[in-house]
Amino acid sequence: MPIEKANKAFINYLDSYRKENLSGHLLAPVDYIFSLGGKRLRPAISIWINQLYDGNLNTVLPAALAIEMFHNFSLVHDDIMDEAPLRRGKATVHHKWNTNTAILSGDAMLVLVYEILSDLEENKLKPALKLFNFAALNVCEGQQLDMDFENQDSINLDDYITMIGLKTGDLLGASFAIGALLANASKEDIDHLYSFGKNTGIAFQLQDDILDLYGDQGKVGKQVGGDIIANKKTCLWIHAFEKANKDQKAKLKKMIFEADPEKKVSLAKELFDVLKVKEDADAIKSQYQKEAFEHLEKIDLDPTKKNMIKAFALNLLTREF
Amino acid sequence: MPIEKANKAFINYLDSYRKENLSGHLLAPVDYIFSLGGKRLRPAISIWINQLYDGNLNTVLPAALAIEMFHNFSLVHDDIMDEAPLRRGKATVHHKWNTNTAILSGDAMLVLVYEILSDLEENKLKPALKLFNFAALNVCEGQQLDMDFENQDSINLDDYITMIGLKTGDLLGASFAIGALLANASKEDIDHLYSFGKNTGIAFQLQDDILDLYGDQGKVGKQVGGDIIANKKTCLWIHAFEKANKDQKAKLKKMIFEADPEKKVSLAKELFDVLKVKEDADAIKSQYQKEAFEHLEKIDLDPTKKNMIKAFALNLLTREF
User: Fold this and answer.
1) B303 to chain A nearest CA, in Å?
2) Residue B20: which CATH number?
3) What is the mean pLDDT of residues A206-212?
């Protein structure tokens, strides 16, 4: 099964779940957040990996739904915390309803995650819960670190990588690993797939940081330098601050208060180019990509299938927008 | 084992859980909310019932902790929604930290609930999850209804009872039922204990409404008529509004805007006395108490033990403050 087919299988499953389970007052916002779409990347990965390991589609579909439900739960609560008015071009749940309803429907989503998981076969339930809870707690920890960083003047690169690893890497790791777990893969393969996914997630986020400023403007389709304008401390900013001399540090700090967005972005780009931070970021991204592939290499799956997974990850990690 | 001993066993277990598991940045607010104390009634019930059914203490302790964790999670998120500054005389989590941290640490608590449950024996895990999730979703639904009621002019008694049943009854029902489930009680006993607990919870909440205005002032230890002052639509208020004639309805509506709290409470009491709403509330409370006891009667446990449970519930339901 190619990943596109896994994706399609998931979308059908999600549609019938929504029709059967997400009616009623409390769950209207849950249905709404699903209606906004999204790539459904994580559930497609779980299903695809499961099928590469010759698993049972009926077993993995609910687990894939639980992963997507958790991801959407985290979007609803993160949007409150970030005071974001829009998600995928539409009103966020707390804007369409209100903050209390967004808190509460997010809570209900988290309960639904576990209600869905509780339908797993009895001998898979405990290991699936353990794997899932490990990732879920790490996602919470990552979000807490991200919020803490907003109030810190300087962040070092290690702490930043830790944060993005927790906030986005672990759930990707769990998406790969749970597909394998439900297909009776070995403990070693499950662990390697988790690490493969986690490191791929870190490399993906670093790439996202780079593309914000250095992406193909036509293809990006969003404002170039959005992170700079929002004063987000991405890996570019952190590298710049670490390498800057006294004068350049002063310029970086002054830049934060520049009101004209275009001028702000061009000032940043000028300084970042001088400091060659794109090269640093590319290098560190490659390092995590390499680590991901080392884990992939170690799994016990035939080379054709391993190459399919590698090609998929390379595709994710070489987009230009 | 008497319930006091169950309570003590729980407190010891909670203390060591907190020491071993609730350190670290993300979980400091979780440890804080536990540090505020509380009666630990629900976990004591689970343990006590489990022991009355000759269950294994080591099995029920984690389930009791999961129940108490869920209860405390709901307090953290409800306090945000209610904008409450104080909980048990101390700052609420969102006041001591901030709203985002309270949302996030509440989320982490909900994941911890399931991480604790995942340690149950394999053959108990699925039924315990099903039972627990049923109650947890109902608690969310009850909180949503409670918030909806704030924006409604009139609420009928049936809707009010539905709301308090979901918001406070179901978790009490689950506390009784899970203790029995883990001690291999029959499906019938588990269901009856759930209904017993749920109806007891409803009667308890009705009593709470009555005591707010008619409790023994010296023993209440809090402001008499606090619900009246806060314009809460309790069962007294709903009965009054249902029975009032046109003039009395006008008085009730006017009362809402009375600025002097003492005058407001005495106006309400005068009207409530004329309309005999205490008698109505007492009658409906008795009805739910009776229904609770009918379920208790049907369980397959020796009469001495059943009487202990009945005495415990009567004690809960006849306090004067």
Assistant:
1) 35
2) 1.10.600.10
3) 94
Q: Last residue of some domain: B139, B156, B175?
A: B139
Residues of chain A positioned with their CB less than 8 A from the CB of B71: none
Query: pLDDT: is A77 or A224 the higher one?
Result: A77
CA distance B97 to chain A (A): 12
Touching check for B25 and chain A: CB below 8 Å? yes
Residue B199 belongs to some domain of the structure: yes
Q: Which two tokens stand for residue B128?
A: 């315990």
* B303 CB burial (10 A radius; 0-12, 13-18, 19+): exposed
Domain edge (last residue) among B139, B172, B195: B139
Of A26, A129, A141, the CB nearest to B141: A26
Q: Which residues of chain B does A30 touch, with a Cβ-Cβ cutoff of 8 Å? A: none
pLDDT tens digits for range A82-98: 999 999 999 999 999 99
pLDDT digits (tens, 9 = 90+) for B239-252: 999 999 999 999 98
Chain A interface disruption, residue of B79, B81, B114, most A CBs within 10 A: B114
Q: How many domains does chain B have?
A: 2
Which residues face B132 on adjacent strands?
none
pLDDT of residue B173: 98
State the residue range of the domain holding B193: 186-321
**pLDDT given for residue A150 in this prediction:** 84
Determine whether A308 is exposed, middle or buried from the number of CB atoms within 10 Å of its CB (0-12, 13-18, 19+): middle
Average pLDDT over residues B202-225: 84
